[in-house]
Design a protein that fits this description.
- 44% of the residues are buried.
- α4 runs antiparallel to α5 (183-197).
- The chain is of the alpha+beta class and 473 residues long.
- It has a domain at 7-171.
- The model has no long low-confidence stretch (mean pLDDT 95).
- The chain has helices at 34-39, 50-55, 117-132, 171-180, 183-197, 207-229, 279-298, 302-314, 316-330, 342-354, 359-368, 383-395, 399-409, 417-428, 433-442, 461-466; strands at residues 16-18, 28-32, 61-63, 66-69, 72-75, 81-88, 94-100, 139-151, 155-165, 231-232, 254-255.
- A 5-stranded antiparallel beta sheet has the order 2-8-9-7-6.
- The chain binds adenosine monophosphate and magnesium ion.
- Residues 239-240, 249 line the site of magnesium ion.
């Protein structure tokens, strides 16, 4: 028996639908995350038992939410995911366990509520990669085939992924409360969320303002970390922004190879709204939507509420800049930087863009001094910048310490797009060996080994230009 709780159901019933997953025709476990099972202290006689343990839930539910999708407001909800319950970890943390791809709910609109095996394997791989890059993320406990075919452009194996998060509450949940509920509903959701995720702010003078500031801060922290590793989420709609500050909804996400701020892989993001370099602006925009949703509970006087929200949003840029440059300078081995050192980052990125350098490998070369004859860092264009950079070590710390910092902040291994596709395609055809190997490498992304060079090679330009990722497939 898996002991599950359902604290979310203490909210007014407009926040959820009680619903059970569509029974699987023939469940078949494809992958199980033993490391995570151990962390959760879940012991199984047979790994194959895990899906049915979860399906035993007494009060599974789908969550109602809304959201701004590519800028437009829509009523949404878990259309193909069901929270099976909340699990209390050995550290006494409450986490949601959700089954994604588990059938239709009240919120499915025109969709079938299902997911393809390839999409669920992608979610598993990418979420594990982000987690091991030391960035907050949803986790994946298992992937199981449902035994049913799922029709997209062609027939695919249907599958579910078990997704774990501190909570699936998102900015869109607050937008839903604001637009489709009463102020009391919004207040209940706010109290519930603060209690569950941020009890440390409970003594704040203005609790809701402290909550808004906290969520802004964890989002900045999160997205700055995405920038650190070249991650492009791809669909930063407000319904995909978690209040807990965890990365989730791995649809059209990808990692950038050649550095360019306009990099986009998502097939539907034709205007580049969610391009790599736009993730800053979009984070601010999303937080502004969150602030708007909170207005009625931010202050009883609506003008004061607006002023408080505006002041918070106005502080975004300076908080972002400080965190962003601090992080980027850690990638260059510089701790506790001064603002005079910030231009080093901008100049480097400009050089990388002009020289079309691989984002990850350039920083890797700094960390390990992997310079050889072909290394663009040895080229004349880089000389003046390199001199400036190396001079900073005298004023801040020595080269040895700098290397330590760089190695801890610059991954050697990211899920390169071509490797991800190769591994997923083979896994869908029944051979999970490439997938397992890639996963093994991605579980130690900062542990560079020269004999693993294969995993550091960027895709060829042909592949890269044609590469497109898809949403919700
Ligand atoms: P996403 O792009 O995954 O964030 O999904 C956006 C919205 O579409 C959410 O409300 C999902 O629940 C819903 N959705 C995505 N795929 C499906 C599907 N196959 N069936 C039903 N709803 C879906
Ligand atoms: Mg979503």
């Amino acid at each position: 028996m898996l002991k599950l709780e359902y604290s979310y159901l203490s909210l007014p019933d407009k926040f959820y639908q009680l619903v059970k997953p569509t029974p699987f025709i023939k469940p078949e476990l494809v992958l199980i995350n033993n490391e995570l099972l151990e962390q959760l202290n879940i012991s199984l006689k047979k790994p194959e038992d895990m899906p049915s343990l979860l399906l035993d839930s007494q009060s599974s539910f789908a969550q109602a939410y809304a959201g701004h999708q590519f800028g437009g407001f829509t009523k949404l909800g878990d259309g193909r995911a069901i929270v099976m319950g909340e699990y209390i970890t050995p550290e006494n943390e409450r986490i949601d366990i959700q089954l994604k791809g588990s059938g239709r709910t009240l919120y499915s609109r025109g969709g079938d509520g299902k997911a393809t095996l390839k999409a669920m394997l992608r979610e598993y791989l990418m979420s594990e990669a982000i987690h091991h890059l030391k960035i907050p993320s949803s986790r994946s406990l298992f992937v199981a085939k449902t035994g049913e075919a799922v029709k997209r452009e062609r027939e695919n194996d249907g599958a579910v992924v078990a997704r774990l998060m501190k909570s699936h509450i998102r900015i869109g949940t607050f937008e839903y409360a604001r637009h489709f509920g009463s102020t009391e509903d919004l207040q209940s959701l706010t109290n519930y969320t603060i209690n569950r995720l941020y009890s440390e702010i409970s003594q704040a003078e203005n609790l809701v303002l402290a909550f808004l500031q906290k969520v802004m801060s964890v989002q900045i922290e999160l997205v700055v970390n995405w920038m650190r590793v070249g991650f492009i989420h791809g669909v930063m709609n407000t319904d995909n922004v978690s209040i807990s500050g965890e990365t989730f909804d791995y649809g059209p996400c990808a990692f950038m190879n050649t550095y360019h701020p306009d990099t986009v892989y998502s097939s539907i993001d034709t205007n580049g709204r969610y391009a790599f370099g736009n993730q800053t602006k979009i984070t601010k925009w999303n937080i502004a939507r969150f602030a708007e949703a909170l207005l009625p509970v931010l202050h009883p006087d609506s003008d004061t509420a607006l002023q408080l929200a505006q002041a918070c949003i106005d502080s975004f840029d300076s908080i972002w800049n400080e965190k962003y440059y601090q992080m980027m300078l850690l990638k260059l081995g510089i701790e506790n930087p001064t603002p005079e050192q910030y231009p080093l980052v901008d100049e480097l990125l400009k050089l990388m863009q002009t020289l079309r350098l691989d984002y990850t490998n350039t920083f890797l070369a700094f960390s390990y001094d992997t310079g050889n004859g072909d290394n663009p860092l040895n080229g004349p264009e880089f000389k003046p910048w390199l001199v400036k950079w190396k001079n900073t070590f005298d004023s801040s710390n020595g080269v040895v310490q700098a290397r330590k910092i760089m190695i801890a902040n610059n991954p050697a291994f990211i899920p390169r797009n071509h490797l991800v596709e190769e591994a997923l395609d083979a896994a869908v055809d029944g051979d999970t060996s490439l997938f397992e190997k890639l996963l093994l490498v991605l579980r130690k992304p900062y542990h560079y080994q020269e004999n693993m060079g294969y995993y550091t090679i960027p895709p060829n330009q042909n592949f890269e230009h044609r590469y497109a990722t898809y949403c919700g497939t």
